[in-house]
Amino acid sequence: MTDQAIRVVVNGALGRMGQTVLGAVKADPATNPVGGADRAASTDTVAVPGGDPVALTRSLADLLAAVDADVVVDFSSGEGAVQAMEAATGAGVRVVSGSTGVPAGELERLGAIAAERGVGIISASNFALGAVLMMYLAEVAGPHFDYADLIESHHEAKIDSPSGTALSIAAAARAGRDTDFSYNEPEKVTLDSVRGGSLGGVNVHSARMPGRMARHELVFGTAGQTLTIVHDTINRDCYMPGVMAAVKRVMSLTGLMVGLDQVLGLRDPAKP
User: Fold this and answer.
1) Could you list the residue range(s) of the whole structural domain that residue 44 is in?
2) Which of 21, 146, 198, 244 is the most buried (most CB within 10 A)?
3) pLDDT at residue 31, as a whole number
4) Which residues pair with 224 in a beta bridge?
């Protein structure tokens, strides 16, 4: 990578995450926002927090034909991410995507195209450094405890329960074990589903209420002791250090990398 600032385009630039990414890219001296794409675009520019407006189009492919870009940052949807990766790799541009819901097999197909083009794609379901570290610590601690409960709380408008992050944390806790966690079976159930859902023996409980963005609390238990790991998300700024780390890492990547844990060096890319 040269000393020139990394030129970044944001797909989904009019959304709240898109605006936060544009501001973070502008604030980092190693990066520079050069454009945005959004299906809802009705003007030819988009505001950049802390900077001058940049070009805006409805079509990412049209934007990449009009501006010089090194990286596309995508926060759209599963369908939007596939289209963004196809447009970017076709133009020889790298991709960092936080979109979920990409159909099975599509990431591998797009990663192969990126490798042929000599560019990289980083796809991660969560860019919060603390959440990624929590999953890593859950996998390390899981084999040493007998029981596990996970309580996740989000704002009242969240559409899924439990959260995708909660499922990933529970799966990570189970991943390092040979067997499921022990699971308390109450002799008397006085309220249906009071024990929550279960993934690998991890009891998962969901709370939804105003005044909270996201909180995940994992409690391990064994004879005479418990271990609690908690991660709180206060606002969307929490994702930006991870996004910016991925933007810089993708500049030296060829092919596909899945998960921020690899960007942070927590997992060997050669291992599943």
Assistant:
1) 6-123
2) 21
3) 98
4) none
User: Measured between alpha carbons, how far is 266 from 262 in angstroms, rounded to an integer?
Assistant: 6
Q: Are residues 210 and 133 in the same domain?
A: yes
- What's the rounded Cα separation, in Å, for the pair 162 and 116? 38
Which residue numbers are catalytic?
154, 158
In a domain, 201, yes or no: yes
Instruction: Report the distance separating Cα 42 and Cα 57, nearest Å.
Output: 8
pTM summary value: 0.86
The reported pLDDT for the residue numbered 1 is 42
Strand partners, 46: 54
90 with 197, same domain: the answer is: no
Residue 256 domain flag = no
Helix (H) / strand (E) containing 263 = helix 260-263
Instruction: Please tell me what DSSP assigns to residue 28.
Output: S
Mean pLDDT for the chain overall: 94
Asked if 130 contacts 215 with a C-beta cutoff of 8 angstroms, the reply is no
**Amino acid letter, residue 29:** P
DSSP 110: H
